[in-house]
């Protein structure tokens, strides 16, 4: 047996149509089951950004040693990834690092010059 589609006028076998209908029915039943079995959830309290930040800070303070150990273990176990991360960070911030190095050098020179002038005045 074949069914004719009213939209496109194509003929489809009965098994195919039955499968499609069964899938639709099954999907609807799953939705109904979920709705019937759904237990009432606790009402969630919306936190302000400041409250969220405070909670994160409390969690961090409470679990500081645990988080520190997790980070150490990750770095120990993923040395190659860490090396790549550091290299990429260095490449991304190369200009910034060079500028900071120039500033440090100039400050060192300025400090040496200041010490020289102080010694000459004495």
Compact overview of the structure:
By secondary structure, the protein is mainly alpha-helical. It is built from five helices and two strands, in the order ββααααα.
- What is the total domain count? 2
Give me the side-by-side strand order of the main sheet. 1-2
By helix and strand content, what is the structural category? mainly alpha
Supply the number of helical segments: 5
Q: How much is the average pLDDT? A: 89
What is the helix content?
over 70%
Give the distance, in angstroms, between the N- and C-terminal Cα atoms. Answer: 114 Å
Query: How much of the sequence is in beta strands?
Result: under 5%
* Stretches with pLDDT under 50, minimum 5 residues: none
What is the subunit arrangement here?
A: single chain
**Major sheet, described briefly?**
2 strands, antiparallel
How many strands? 2
Q: What general form does the structure show?
A: elongated
Cα-atom Rg, whole angstroms?
34 Å
Task: Please provide the ordered H/E string of secondary-structure elements.
Answer: EEHHHHH
Account of the 3D structure:
The structure is a single chain. This protein has 122 residues and is mostly helical. Helices cover 77% and strands 5% of the residues. It has helices at residues 14-37, 49-62, 64-77, 79-92, 94-121, and strands at residues 2-4, 11-13. It has a two-stranded antiparallel ribbon. Strand 1 and strand 2 (11-13) form a beta hairpin. It is elongated, with a radius of gyration of 34 Å. The termini are far apart. The model has no long low-confidence stretch (mean pLDDT 89).
């Amino acid at each position: 047996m074949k069914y004719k589609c009213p939209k496109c006028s194509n003929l489809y076998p009965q098994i195919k149509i039955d499968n499609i209908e069964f899938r639709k029915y099954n999907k609807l039943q799953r939705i109904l089951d979920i709705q019937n079995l759904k237990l009432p959830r606790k009402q969630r309290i919306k936190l302000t950004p400041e409250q969220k930040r405070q909670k994160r800070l409390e969690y961090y303070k409470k679990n500081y040693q645990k988080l520190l150990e997790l980070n150490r273990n990750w770095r120990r176990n993923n040395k190659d990834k860490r090396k790549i991360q550091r290299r990429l960070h260095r490449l991304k911030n190369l200009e910034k690092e060079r500028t900071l190095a120039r500033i440090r050098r100039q400050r060192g020179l300025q400090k040496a010059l200041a010490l020289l002038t102080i010694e000459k005045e004495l």
